[in-house]
Predict the structure of ABC transporter permease.
Amino acid sequence: MNFIKRALLSVKERKGKSLLQIFIFTVICVLVLSGLAIQSAAEKSSELARESLGADITLQIDRQAMMENIRESGGSPQDMETGVPLSEAEKIASLDYLKGYNFFTSEVALANDFEAISTGDDTEETEGNGNPFSGNDRMVQGDVSLRGVLYSDSSASFMSGDSVLEDGEHITEEDLDENVAMIEKNLAELNNLEVGDTLTLGSAVEENSLEVEIIGIYSTTETLDTGGFGGQNIAADPYNRIYVPYTASSKLSSSEETSEPMLESAIYYIQDPSKIDEFKEEAKAISALNFDGEYLLSADDQAYQQMMGPIENVASFSNNVVYLVAIAGAIILGLIVMMAIRERKYEMGVLLAIGEQKWKLIGQFVAEILIVAILALGIASVSGQMVAGAIGDQLLEQQLTQEQELTTQPESFGGRFSGGRPGSSTNQPVDGVEAIDELEIKITPQDFGLLAVIGMLIALISTLIPSLSVLRLQPKTILTKQE
């Protein structure tokens, strides 16, 4: 194996050309390693996005499909379903993939022993408790809106941060069948109400009322959208929204006991948005609901898709980096080796003249570039770590900027597993999970092994192809031309 010894001596003697090759090969390896690091960072960021953002699926009546079926069958609107059966919503809530769920009802009610906040510039004299409506108008439109929930902290207003709990506690599963409520801060101040006080709600459609205990007071930044028209129902004012357990809302809306409580909708919060289709399939399989014209499972993963767009672009970019750098590197090194071979024709002619075999000459060139590759891989393994870390930090910083409002989750997402009543904070991380503010990207043995394979392939391809010209060499011709 004297050609290996010659390769070592050649690399040592040609310091300038060897250093140039080492530099070029190192740049290639660092760029390839950076591409692999970007892929790793993109994959981890994708996992982080799925865990932090999730998605939600809403179970509700498909009113559009129902109306079309009624028109086609000649039926009447009274034939439409009135809501989602509680038992069916609970069946679906037992499936995997969930980090939380919530049940909702909506009703309007009368303020029997307190004053609702008046909207607009209405200055008419009011009767009784000061509401601007009287008689049948008031009974139909109501004074306050009731939002029946299973968990108040995962209602849309609290999830978005528009509403914040100021005092007391959130409504949770433990409050089912209890007559409790959460009221808005302005409504509480207008009526001098505090946590622990009671208020009486009257039904706008039935001759019954419900006394509820205030367990929480919240504030909201939502505004009343009148759509440019006056005379807006005061029950639509966000300040007049009262949260109650959905069981309490059902008590007020009907004076009769029903065998099957009906919900307006049920929302299921999916841990991993990639499991949406699987969840839908399993939900339809276990449910007795008709999803072909009566009920609908609609998914909302817009935040996840918005987050995944740039991450997928980064992953695609990293793949292109690896391919382009590998191909370009092989071409550049191939040209360098080809030039080196042309400069060393006399050396090869002498070796061939004294009986050296052609494959050993090719082996010498391969050995020389492999020596360069090994040195370049060693340098890249050190410098590549810094590049990979910088790329990982930049990628995480971009992601945190985009999802800074979405990294917290309601406590009720852990409530179905841990039990217990949430505290006064509206948005807390899931138990045992902390917000990730640092993503440490390290060059793993797998990454370095893949780099080594790619580097060796580049070395072999860039050397073997130019070295094939050696097979055509004749020592007599080489030496004659040299003379």
The CA atoms of residues 109 and 203 lie 5 Å apart.
